[in-house]
Amino acid sequence: MASRALTLLLALLPAAASAYPNTHPVLAWSSRSSKALSSVAASDVVKTGSHAIAEALYNHDAICEHDAVVIVEHSGLHASDLRSLSPSCHMAKALSGAPSTLQLSYVESGDRTANPFVDMAGVLSRRCGSRAVSHSPSSDLALDAERVKHVVSISLPPLEDGETGSSRKSAMASQESWLSSELAKIEEVFSNYLVIYSGSPGVSLHARQPSSSTTFDSVQADPSSKGGILKRYQLLTPGLILVLLISLFILIPIIFVGVSALSSIQSPLSNEIPKGFSAEEKKNQ
């Protein structure tokens, strides 16, 4: 039993070690073979933080070969949110059929709020001579009919850190559906494009100004109105789960086996006087 529990624990260690706070996923794919994306995906820079990855990708000489670079920012996005999407969604199909891809589940965020892929978008547009376009669910996508190079920055409403379960899954599916329709519009105009879909550390929605109108009203609701400690705080952290697994499957069985072994020990000596024993007779001998 102890050996099986240890095997299970060792299998869970990589996931627990990677799923630490202040990380986010980064996905990227291109409609045509991208030297910039392939070079970054094959280098050791993917083991570093998001700022180093963005810098290496944006400074590559071949990045300007794409007619459109689409940068999608999704605050509060976790790798588990991507796993909850349907395999038939637009994003999953795009990744599976793209000539060049980059898929990172846990990338360290150097800054608590900044997203380097978005912050450096202006530098990229000036470097490539591209038209910078900002887009969100509350605005209309305006693309140049003359098909000049574009750098399109799309901002999705944030996912709450405390939101879990079916409500978060539903919000993620809704946002992915809207994003897919917007990417389809871009694909109709530009045949050679690169998409960078990056999460960023979640920020409390109390600090954000409410939007006048948005496609995803359920995502921008005040978290205090939802109530419940499980809605606002993450209680089962990876470290706590690891401690519970060690306690339940290793320490408790070892203590139980030790106590059982000690209780089964019987002394070979006995203090009872044998039957027929006579002290006087023993003395005369």
Question: In words, what does this structure look like?
Answer:
- Keywords: Cell wall biogenesis/degradation, Endoplasmic reticulum, Membrane, Signal, Transmembrane, Transmembrane helix.
- This is Protein BIG1.
- Helices cover 42% and strands 16% of the residues.
- By secondary structure, the protein is an alpha/beta fold.
- The chain folds into two domains: 1-21 and 237-260, no CATH class; 22-203, no CATH class.
- It has a six-stranded mixed β-sheet with strand order 3-1-6-2-5-4, sandwiched between helices.
- The model is unreliable at 1-19 and 204-227 (pLDDT under 50).
Number of β-strand runs? 6
| Overall average residue pLDDT | 78
Q: Strand arrangement, largest sheet?
A: 3-1-6-2-5-4
How can the largest sheet be summarized?
6 strands, mixed
Which structural class fits the helix and strand makeup?
A: alpha/beta
* Element order: H for helix, E for strand: HEHHEHHEHHEEHEHHH
| Low-pLDDT residue intervals, each spanning 5 or more residues | 1-19, 204-227
Strand content: 15-25%
- Cα(first) to Cα(last) distance is 58 Å
Subcellular location: Endoplasmic reticulum membrane
Transmembrane segments: 240-262
Membrane topology: Single-pass type I membrane protein
GO biological process, one term: cell wall organization
Short summary:
This protein has 285 residues and is α/β, with parallel strands linked by helices.
Present the secondary structure layout.
Elements (H helix, E strand, L loop, with lengths): L1 H17 L4 E8 L4 H8 L7 H9 L9 E8 L3 H5 L6 H8 L2 E9 L7 H4 L1 H8 L2 E5 L14 E7 L8 H25 L3 E8 L28 H4 L5 H26 L15 H6 L1
Parallel strand pairs: 2-5, 2-6, 4-5
Antiparallel strand pairs: 1-3, 1-6
Helix pairs in contact: 1-10, 2-3
